[in-house]
Structure formats: C-alpha cells, structure tokens
Amino acid sequence: MSRNPIAPWLSESRWSTVPIRLVARLGSGHTPSRSKPEYWDGCTIPWVTLADVWQLRSGQVDVITETKEKISPLGVANSAAVQHPAGTVILSRTASVGFSAIMGESMATSQDFATWTCGPLLEPRYLLHALRGMAPDFRRIATGSTHKTIYMPDIEQLRVPLPPRDEQRRIADFIDVETSRIDQLFALRERQVALLGEAAFSRVYDTVRGADFCGSRKDSGLPWLGSVPVDWRVSAVSHHFEVALGKMLNEERKQGEHLRPYLRVANVQWDHVDVSDLAVMDFPPEEQARYRLQSGDLLVNEGGSWPGRAAIWGSEVPEIYYQKALHRIRPRGEELTRWLYYCLVVAERLRVFQVQGNTSTMTHLTREQLRPQRFPFPEVSRQAQLVAELDRAAERDRIVQQLLTRQMKLIAERRQALITAAVTGQFDVSTASGRNVLDGVTV
Fold first, then answer.
1. pLDDT of residue 379
2. Is the model's pTM score more than 0.85?
3. Going along 223-373, which residue ranges are E strands?
4. Is the pLDDT of residue 251 over 80?
5. Interatomic CA distance for residues 314 and 297, integer angstroms
6. What is the three-class DSSP state of 176?
7. d(CA 75, CA 72)
8. The pLDDT of residue 339 is above 90
9. DSSP summary character for residue 248
C-alpha cells in the first residue's frame, strides 16, 4: 500500500484507505458579520468555536453538547456558516490544531473547524478515533507564523481505513473501553502530581511562618500569615533588599555595537531560569553595570501571564542582563534571597499582591507593591537552616514529579498507540485485550 503523506502509519492498515471526503460530506464553518447586530439577535443555534476547544484537549470528551456561543438563524442564512446535523465529526484546524469530537445535536462551527457528516459506509465514532490517531500528524503538518493552521487542501487529502461498518463499531467500542481504563490511570497520576504540589506548598507555608517553632509567638500583623516566632522580624522587602527593574525594550534593541543577551518574563519559571531562548538588546558600556545580573540575584516577574513568579539566577550564562518586566532583587546585607523566594511562593499562592491591588494593577506586581511588602525574617543562620531543609525536600519532590511525568508521558504514548493499532486492524478487537498496553507503567 502506498505511503500516506500526512499519516504514514495508515499504510500499515489491514484495510484499504479512502479519502474521508468520499464517504463523508466535508464541510467547515463561518463567522457571521459582527458589524450586523441583527445577525446576533435571537441566537439559538449552538456554534462551536475555538473557545470550546478546552472541552476536547484531554481526548476524553467524545460528544460535544454545549457551546460557549450561539448564532442566529438570520446569521447563518446571511453567511457561509452551515448548520450541521447531530453526529457530525469536527476537527479544530487553526490555533489549537488537531482536537476532535462528535456533535451531540445540530450545530454550526466557526471557520476554525473542518466537519464530516458521515455517509452509510462510515461510523462517526470510528472516524473520531481515526482522527485522534492522526492528532500528532496534524500538529506536524500545521503551518503558519502566528497561528498554526491545517489548510483545507490538506484536509481534503485525509484518508481513513474502511473496514465493514460492523467492524468499525466493534473497533470504536473496544477503543472506548480500553482508553477509559487508561484515562483512569492517567487521572490517578495527575492527582498524585497535584497532591505532591499541595504537600510542598504546605511545607513551605509552615516553614515561612515558623509553625514548628515551640517557643513564644507574636502576631505578624499580616492576615495571610498569622503569628510568627517572637524573635522573628517582620519587615519590608526594601529594608533588606534592593529592588530594581530592568531596561525598557525598544524597537532598535537588536541593533548597536553592544548586543548582549537578556532575560524576559518568559525565561523566568518557578525556581528555574530557562536560557534556551534568549533575546538580545544593545547595552552600551554606561548601562552594563546597572542591568547586568549577578549570581544569586532573585528575579521576579513584574507582569506577563504570571506576575510574582520567581527564580534565583545561577549564572547559567556568563554575562546576561534583564528587561523592565523583571524585578531584580539583591541583598543589602546578609539576608538570603532564597528565603525571600520561599516567602514569595507563599504570597503568590495566597494571592497577597492581587488582593492588595486594584483593577489597573491586578495583572502586575509593581515596584510600589513589592518594596513595602512585609515578610517574616528569622536570624540569618536560621534562614540558612530552613532554606536548606526546604531545598532538600524540593529536590525529593522534583525526583518524584519527574517519575510521575515520565509515567504520564508513557501512558499517553500507549493510549495513542492503542488507537492507531485498532483503527488500522493491527489486532483483532473481538479477541484482543488492551491489558498489555500498559506494560512498563507501575499501577
């Protein structure tokens, strides 16, 4: 059998493959003009858009019955939108590429979806599983600099193995049962990861407020923290640390005689600085001392998608600078930035800065918020002891999380392999059991 250019593994099928468009009516959708208010009055027709893709990401929702938006019959009549019948199979083809489901009732879609209304030779559930088997191929062939897209000429080339319809139903039933079992194991691993994170936060929170200290305590004056040991100071960040913002970005940042790598918000992850993708900007000699990072500096996101996220710079790159959307925190004396890091973990999780902010500062951790923020500070040698204990526990958690993540990846790969093997007839589903697909994954 000839090699399929989009999904090469289909060439291993026991059955001949046919273009899907020959056994199912291929369609798409449209967005009625937003400039016509009358098209958006009396909206009663469920309308699948990219806002609904969240339902499909896990691959565990086979039938979609509710949509975030609806459109009106007038909007459909005056646009290229089409109302597809229940049972139509949909595939997201732009931005969030490769997610699929079956319409549970008559619906329309935006232009971001391809649709197939199956004819008498094709079972919708079988087609759904075949498309899910192709999901990695869709992401591979998607193109575009801003939003990845699978264009309709590629959609028109898609093929599917075509066993008898009774066999398609048996295959769909088999995949439903076996993937459900696999999904239960995957969900268990997800829950273990979540519990690991919850335990880690509780440990940090108790340490930051000195919960294990058996001596006298005092009110910290911080509602989110409660009491702290009586000999711990509760003071402002600016009392112990210098807080500075990096260089403002400009259109000419990739020009000049003194181009240097710098860190952006995207580089600062929790407790980790990602240096795999560094931008460059011109830092003249008179600016270099001001914006150059030193090992041990604490970096805190001022804005972006996660204000307050923090990491310690460990000199992963010999010479590096930072942009204005990052706070650089450096000790004035002997206080530990690592202790402050753990304080920020607690503050971010408990939304301390968000509660103190307003609608204009909600998405930013401004310098005016960060500098006066008060945290508990034990004596420096005690800080070092507590930080060492937290670091050792965090390393143990990291090892366990890596193990769980590897298992989740393996489970997902086995799930995908099961689907592709079933839809291509690599085993007889009437006698096969999926019990061996999880070999190597500890239950």
1. 96
2. no
3. 227-229, 233-236, 241-245, 259-263, 268-269, 272-273, 279-282, 298-301, 310-312, 321-322, 326-331
4. no
5. 8
6. helix
7. 5
8. yes
9. P
Cα separation of 24 and 155, whole Å? 12
CA–CA distances in Å: residue 251 to residues 255, 256, 280, 321: 9, 12, 12, 17
**Would you state the structure tokens that stand for residue 58, as one six-digit string?**
């896990």
The angle subtended at Cα 160 by Cα 154 and Cα 166, nearest 5°, is 155
Cα-based angle 379, 380, 383 (whole degrees, multiple of 5): 90
Coil/strand/helix, residue 243: strand
Q: Which residues contact 188 (CB under 8 A, 6 or more apart)?
A: none
> What pLDDT score does 145 carry?
65
Residues 247, 281 contacting (CB under 8 angstroms): yes
DSSP string, 172-220: HHHHHHHHHHHHHHHHHHHHHHHHHHHHHHHHHHHHHTTTT--S-EEE-
- What token pair was written down for 232? 């711990």
Q: Do 64 and 55 contact (CB within 8 A), yes or no?
A: yes
CA distance 59 to 182: 12
Domains in the chain with CATH codes: 8-162 (3.90.220.20), 165-210+384-443 (no CATH), 215-377 (3.90.220.20)
E strands within 323-362?
Answer: 326-331
Give the phi and the psi of residue 105 in degrees, each rounded to 5.
-155, 175
Beta strands in 163-251 (DSSP E): 217-219, 227-229, 233-236, 241-245
Rounded Cα gap, residues 422 and 417, in angstroms: 8
What is the identity of the amino acid at 249? L
**pLDDT at residue 4, rounded to an integer:** 62
179, two tokens: 């993937």
- Judge contact between 300 and 329, C-beta under 8 A: yes
Residue 95: enclosing H or E segment and its boundaries?
A: none
Q: How far is 415 from 183, CA to CA, in rounded Å?
A: 8
Distance CA 217, CA 231 (A): 8
Among 44-53, 168-177, 362-371, the minimum mean pLDDT is found in: 362-371
Alpha carbon distance 258, 264 (integer Å):
18
* Average pLDDT over every residue of 29-48: 92
User: What's the full length of the chain, in residues?
Assistant: 443
* Residues linked to residue 18 through DSSP beta bridges, in sequence order: 160
β-bridge pairing 227-229 and 69-71 = unpaired
* pLDDT for position 142: 87
d(CA 40, CA 276): 46
C-alpha to C-alpha distance for 151 and 287, rounded to whole angstroms: 47
Strand partners, 236: 374
The pLDDT tens digits of the residues spanning 271-299 come to: 999 999 899 999 999 999 999 999 999 99
Cα 72 to Cα 65: distance, rounded to the nearest angstrom: 17
